[in-house]
Write a structure and sequence with these properties.
It is built from 5 helices and 9 strands. By secondary structure, it is of the alpha/beta class. Helix 2 crosses helix 3.
């Protein structure tokens, strides 16, 4: 869970109904929203749910600036949603947390694997570790697609891998660093872009 999070904003994509006279569509949508609220309860001190009918990176980026978010979070997104999330990450210069089908253990993150290709990527990872590392943090590095066979609570990627992020089964949640610089992940406010119940986050503020 993310007990230290101050605020969590969940952005739920709810397309406009093509057949508005079908009552079952409205019922299913209401059930989905109720499930999101139940899953998000207790994830942060303040939880807010926003509905959008269109996936527009520009509008979502404007919303992110208005809310002053620090982290973009996706659960199990479609390729389209992932593409929008990647563009929002680029426009806002934010890190992105991908939880996939897994969840965070209810304990501090102590084992991470950092994946970096090239000098610029290694600089970003090293800066991230300097800012966010703790004496108890165990770090292993990978310079290729094969991850070490070890216990891990988080995978850190220096670059956004695009559709490969959802095409691969990861052994732990994945944090993609900011496209501009290593992010400050001592976060203040969460905002989630996902059609599924929100993932658990170790951060203090996310989107």
């Amino acid at each position: 869970a993310a007990p230290d999070a101050d605020e969590l904003t969940i952005v739920a994509h709810l397309p406009e109904r093509r057949l508005p006279w079908l009552a079952t569509e409205g019922t299913q949508a209401a059930q989905t929203l109720d499930e999101l609220r139940r899953c998000a309860a207790g994830a942060a001190r303040t939880v807010e749910l926003k509905l959008i009918s269109e996936l527009d990176a520009g509008q979502l980026s404007a919303l992110g600036r208005e809310l002053r978010i620090d982290l973009l979070v996706v659960g199990q997104p479609t390729i389209r949603i992932l593409g929008v999330a990647g563009e929002v990450r680029k426009q806002l210069g934010l890190p992105l947390l991908y939880s996939g089908s897994g969840t965070f253990a209810d304990r501090p993150i102590t084992n991470i694997v950092c994946v970096a290709f090239g000098e610029r990527a290694f600089r970003a990872v090293n800066e991230f570790l300097r800012e966010q590392g703790t004496p108890d943090l165990q770090v292993k590095f990978a310079s290729g697609p094969t991850l070490p066979q070890t216990e891990m609570d988080l995978v850190v990627l220096a670059r956004f891998p695009g559709p490969l992020l959802v095409a691969r089964v990861w052994p732990a949640p994945v944090l993609v660093l900011s496209p501009a610089a290593a992010p400050a992940v001592a976060l203040r406010r969460p905002l989630e872009l996902s059609p599924s119940p929100p993932p658990l986050s170790p951060a203090k503020r996310s989107w």
